[in-house]
Amino acid sequence: MVHPVAVGAAVHGAAGVAEQRRQFVYGLHAIGAIIERAPERLLELWLAQPRDDRRARELKERALAVGVRVQPVAGEALVKLVGDVAHQGAVAAVRPLKPWDGDDLAAALSGFGAEPLLLVLDGITDPHNLGACLRTAEAAGVHAVVIPRDRSAGIDAVARKVAAGAAEFVPIASVTNLARTLDLLKERGLWIVGTDEAAGQTLFAADLRRPLAVVLGGEGGGMRRLTRERCDFLVRIPMAGRVESLNVSVAAGVALFEARRQRLG
Questions:
Q1: What is the spatial distance between Cα 179 and Cα 175, in angstroms, rounded to a whole number?
Q2: Which of 27, 49, 168, 247 is most open to solvent, judged by the fewest CB atoms within 10 Å of its CB?
């Protein structure tokens, strides 16, 4: 059992964390990914008691090995930190990544190589879908993800948990004007390809071996008009079954890995 004073101290410390604009990440996999790839960003770790299984012990040992303070707390304390979510008994405070805007994205393009691959999400409002898209993007080798600042889910704790660590490593540009950002990408030599179930060309017939930004629209409504007008061409994922569309994160996976397949081939 955790002493009440310890719980109170942990929650009080969390308030201080919030004041310092630190971010919370929860879940064993997401926290483990930070320790593995960016341990300097990890500031503090809270582990629920009496959990003492192998995965929790390994996470604690890895955190201690990189000099991070680990505090055992009651499960209720973690709920106060991040809410009633599937935290798996582990919550960490991390230094946030520097947020990108359109200018940061433009400056970084030259470092992405001859054939950059970007994912543009036009108004994904569900943080679970956003997190899943980030996880897919990282796995497919996407150089950056672009989202609009308004009418879009933010990179909150839910999105970070679903992303399973990807949100800590894929650069995310949150832009005030998505149409203007797409114009900027086109000026820099990228082709803008939008996904649309009514497109005449299939994804698999399109040439994706070029500097590319793949655009997916939000749940239900798809791409907005101004976004669609910026696309150089549209593609559709050919459907063999009776359902009319795929979940946006699944569609992102199909499109991004087809681009990766063509580039590897």
A1: 10
A2: 247
> Of 134, 258, 247, 120, which is closest to residue 191 (Cα–Cα)?
120
Furthest C-alpha separation in the chain: 65
Burial class (CB in 10 A: 0-12, 13-18, 19+), 243: exposed
CA 217 from chain centre, in angstroms, equals: 16
Terminal Cα distance for the chain, rounded: 57
pTM above the 0.70 mark? yes
Pairing of strands 172-175, 23-26: unpaired
In total, the chain counts a number of residues equal to 265
Instruction: Reply yes or no on whether the pLDDT at 92 is more than 80.
Output: yes
Residue 23 scores a pLDDT above 90: no
Beta-strand pair 69-74/117-122: unpaired
Domain at 16, CATH number? 3.30.1330.30
Residues 185 and 157 in one domain: yes
d(CA 119, CA 215): 6
- The tokens describing 169, both together, are 């490593």
Q: Taking 50 as the threshold, does the pLDDT of residue 44 lie above it?
A: yes
Domain co-membership, 57 together with 129? no
Beta bridge partners of 202: 236
Q: How many domains does the chain have?
A: 2
Look at residues 2, 79, 96 and name the one whose alpha carbon lies nearest to residue 42. 96
DSSP characters over 78-135: HHHHH-SS--TTEEEEEPPPPPB-HHHHHHHGGGG-SS-EEEEEE----HHHHHHHHH
Q: How many CA atoms lie within 13 A of 50 on its CB side?
A: 1
